[in-house]
Amino acid sequence: MSQNNQHFKNILELNLAMLLISTSGALGRYIEMPVPIIIGFRAILAGILLFVFCKWKGISLSTSSKDRPTIILSGVLMGLHWVTYFYALKLSNVAVGMLSIFTYPVITALLEPVLLKTKFQKIHLLLALLVLLGIYFLVPDLNFENSYTKAVFFGVLSALCYSLRNLIMKTKVGSYNGSMLMWYQLVVVSIALSPFLFLMDSSGIKEQWLPTLTLALLTTAIGHTLFLGSFKRFSITTASIISSVQPVYGIIIGMIFLKEIPVLSTIIGGLLILTSVVIESVRTYK
Is 11 exposed, middle or buried (CB count within 10 Å of its CB: 0-12, 13-18, 19+)? Predict the structure, then answer.
């Protein structure tokens, strides 16, 4: 396969990952169960599916003892990212929930120099301002009585957890298989959230098993594994840039299946946030 064809195939694969992950918005709004229950079932089901996949593919599940704390921490961050993201979705709509977590590429760009000791670039401050302006349009008024304000707060908190998890994982992706790393994170999330399956009402799973299984299989097991695998072929920033199509896919899915049409201020805020992501991607690509 020529280099151009291989690159095109890699880009297509990454886009497929984005399409699958973007189903989380509509599914998060559609599934009617408490958030810790949804994420708990999501992690357990996806964990079982990935375990079977790893065994089938002969992927080793062994890790070196020095890497385990990092992998466990990334699992905790992944769980926090999902829980806060789903609260953002429940408190608002697909558009606001998904766009607020898309502050993560710029948060990543600001954290990378601190955590991975890379060179700080002044343009990242400008991009951060662009993102803040975008958030200003997403938030109707700075009042925590307002559910949309709370949603954006949870969304940005989710983005922070996701950025930290991606930066921590970047140091490990080269030496381990992406599916195996994802499986360990799912085990951590499953263990952390399993008490909630008994403390909260989880009877809804009887009616909601199909969308929950879809969330576990398509969004999580396949989507996130493809995305983690892309870190080997693209820089984390390029992957972040291409992943900015995710809210676009998500909002379209929400419009088709949930009839959620975003208002003008949401569209303006979203365009500002996604512009910052695209600028950063194009810049690093060059």
Answer: middle
Q: How confident is the model at residue 113 (pLDDT cuts 50, 70, 90)?
A: confident
SS3 234: coil
Asked if 238 and 278 touch (Cβ cutoff 8 Å), the reply is no
Q: Where are the domains of the chain?
A: 3-285
pLDDT digits (tens, 9 = 90+) for 183-230: 999 999 999 999 999 999 999 999 999 999 999 999 998 998 888 777
Distances (CA, A) of 225 to 16, 102, 125, 186, 270: 11, 19, 31, 11, 26
Q: Could you tell me which of 114, 107, 133, 118 has the C-alpha nearest to residue 240?
A: 107
**Residue 2 φ/ψ region, left for φ over 0, alpha for ψ in the -120 to 50 degree band, beta for the rest:** beta
DSSP summary character for residue 92: S
Contact 275, 137 (CB under 8 A): no
Is-contact 155 96, C-beta < 8 A?
yes
Q: What tokens appear for 168 in the block?
A: 């921590």
Closest listed residue to residue 196, CA positions, set 28, 30, 35: 35
Q: How far apart, in whole angstroms, are the C-alpha atoms of residue 286 and residue 277?
A: 14
What span, in angstroms and rounded, lies between the C-alpha atoms of 19 and 218? 10
Q: What pLDDT, on the 0 to 100 scale, is given for residue 237?
A: 64
State mean pLDDT over 113-118: 83
pLDDT digits (tens, 9 = 90+) for 248-262: 999 999 999 999 999
Whether the CB-CB separation of 228 and 181 falls below 8 Å is answered with yes
Burial class (CB in 10 A: 0-12, 13-18, 19+), 243: buried
Average pLDDT over residues 135-151: 85
Rounded to 5°, angle at Cα 65 from 59 and 66: 115
